Amino acid sequence: MSEITIPYTAVMKFVRVPLALQQAVMRTLRQKLAQASDYLETTFPEPCVTYRQRGTIAGSAHLQGWEIRLNPVLLIENQQSFIDEVIPHELAHLLTYHQFGKVAPHGKEWRFVMETVLKVPANRTHQFSVDSVRSKIFIYYCRCQQHELTIRQHNKVLRGKSCYLCQQCKERLKLLEQDKSSTPQSENFA
């Protein structure tokens, strides 16, 4: 196993996940998978783990592909707490799907797998700082207020693919000229 180079953010920066950190992820994944196999008396295949989750999301489980995607930036910044929380959380989604089929993402079946099978608190969201992975936002305005648009929305406006209207005054949003030295930050989670 070697270091994996993955892209993140809209500007496609590359983040290398150190080999020791990848190994720690796999150790925890395998330990939790064995724990689930023993408890549920079922053998589960090892999920594919990739490091290509972007934005403020720590990880995601892709059920049909039996894949766990991890955010390399948040992993590197939070290491052991990330491994202890995110790996079981995403694995629980896969195990829940395997055992119960399509159910509510954080419903009673998922909570059962988290708390009873994996012995981990069933937290739905992470509490990691996301300052380093927040996307740039663009301030638009209408006659009644300011609006925050994501870089994706802003690019659609620039390409002429979309225009956005204020839900209050119904006026078309206009870009507020920004100081080129400042980078506004959004407080929203993806």
Automatic annotation (TrEMBL):
**Which keywords appear in this protein's UniProt record, sorted alphabetically?**
Cytoplasm, Metal-binding, Zinc
Task: Report the principal subcellular site.
Answer: cytoplasm
Q: Which residues bind Zn(2+)?
A: 89, 93
Q: Cofactors per UniProt?
A: Zn(2+)
Q: Which InterPro entries match?
A: SprT-like_domain, SprT_Zn_ribbon, Uncharacterised_SprT
Report the residue ranges that make up the SprT-like domain in this protein. Answer: 27-176
Q: How is the cofactor bound?
A: Binds 1 zinc ion.
Q: Does the keyword Metal-binding apply?
A: yes
Please provide, in alphabetical order, the Gene Ontology terms of the cellular component aspect for this entry: cytoplasm
Please provide the Gene Ontology terms (biological process) for this protein: response to stress
MF (Gene Ontology): zinc ion binding
Q: Which family does it belong to?
A: Belongs to the SprT family.
Its protein name is Protein SprT
Q: Which organism is it from?
A: Xenorhabdus bovienii str. kraussei Quebec
